[in-house]
Design brief:
This protein has 336 residues and is mainly alpha-helical. The protein has one domain: Orthogonal Bundle (MetI-like fold). 68% of the residues lie in helices and 2% in strands. It starts with 10 loop residues before the first strand and ends in a 7-residue tail after the last helix. It is found in: Cell membrane. Keywords: Cell membrane, Membrane, Phosphate transport, Transmembrane, Transmembrane helix, Transport. Pfam families: BPD_transp_1. Belongs to the binding-protein-dependent transport system permease family. CysTW subfamily.
Length: 336
């Protein structure tokens, strides 16, 4: 019987050829490129925060003259600025129009996007699902100006009879009351165009979330005698709830900041109106800035930047709300 010496402490037992593999000390776990990569990743994370802070500081610094200006000074410098109106009262209708268009688009796009995502992930044949998923992803690459042209030249004439029908038969409902736009250039048409624009985002994210549903959950539901829809309702949707909320919030962020499509379709107005079929009632912040910035100067530029600060705060609040909702729903999503 041969007795072999045990290797020194800090060394592994001899390998198959008698070589001793030295163990790395805990302080040597990051060397060379590993340490460089860690600093690059840390710098990238810090860069995001720095950019966000820089944008916020720019908006506050350049918008501060308008925030502190008197209504008389704003009326002298800003075109179409009503007399004796504060900046908050002036920006209020723009915030209302922005939120109204974005929420309507989200209400239209979210159910359709979820339906398409479920069809691709659980109902369509594999070849059809791959092709349809590719086409949905391509919709996100279409420039917004193309959507604007399509909405103005194609969609508005198509929807105009629908809006007239709603105005004649459903005018008892407050959203469809009032005089229907003769050209179809209303907030309702803008909402439909925005819904089409955010549909690829909601569909793509929801599809990937639904595909991550554990197969054991689905097979267990089917083994208990559930139909395909019951399996989706009891296993897939609870698991993907937080992901669908994240997808909807991403779509909402896109709808809040959309500019060209809204500018090309909507007849602008500065009112708090819930009449979706009327023209000249609403305007969004992004479209207002794009329309007035080329001819603005002096305090008018500061007013536009202050309006952009309002949009920045709204977008930040929406994303923070989304993170809070997802964090609350995470433990109930079925992922555990």
């Amino acid at each position: 019987m041969t007795i072999t010496d045990s290797p020194p402490s800090g060394e592994a037992p001899p390998g198959p050829r008698g070589r001793v593999v030295r163990r790395r000390a805990s302080g040597d776990t990051e060397r060379g490129f590993s340490r460089i990569f860690r600093w690059i990743a840390t710098g990238a994370g810090a860069l995001i925060l720095a950019v966000l802070a820089a944008v916020a500081l720019f908006l506050i610094a350049r918008g501060w003259p308008a925030i502190t200006a008197t209504p008389a000074e704003l009326a002298d410098s800003v075109p179409r600025y009503p007399d004796d109106t504060s900046l908050v009262a002036y920006v209020g209708p723009l915030v209302f129009g922005t939120l109204l268009a974005a929420v309507l688009a989200l209400l239209l796009a979210t159910p359709v996007g979820m339906g398409i995502a479920l069809f691709i992930s659980h109902y369509a044949p594999r070849r059809l699902a791959q092709g349809l998923g590719y086409l949905v992803d391509l919709l996100a690459a279409i420039p917004s100006v193309i959507y604007g042209l399509w909405g103005f030249l194609v969609l508005a004439p198509v929807l105009k009879p629908v809006w007239f029908w709603l105005g004649e038969n459903a005018s008892w409902f407050p959203l469809f009351a009032g005089k229907v736009s003769a050209t179809g250039k209303s907030i309702a048409t803008v909402a439909v165009v925005l819904a089409v624009m955010v549909l690829p985002i909601i569909t793509a994210v929801s599809r990937e979330v639904f595909l991550q549903t554990p197969k054991l959950h689905e097979e267990a539901a089917l083994a208990l005698g559930a139909t395909r829809w019951e399996m989706v309702r009891t296993a897939v949707l609870p698991f993907g709830r937080s992901g669908v909320i994240s997808a909807a919030m991403l779509g909402l962020g896109r709808a809040l900041g959309e500019t060209m499509a809204v500018l090309m379709i909507l007849s602008p107005g500065f009112t708090y109106s819930l009449h979706l079929l009327e023209a000249g009632n609403h305007q969004t912040i992004a479209a207002y800035i794009a329309n007035d910035f080329p001819e603005a100067s002096g305090l008018a530029v500061n007013t536009l930047i202050a309006t952009g600060l309002a949009l920045f705060v709204i977008t930040l609040a929406v994303n923070m709300l989304a993170r809070w909702i997802v964090a609350r729903r995470k433990e109930f999503s079925g992922a555990n």
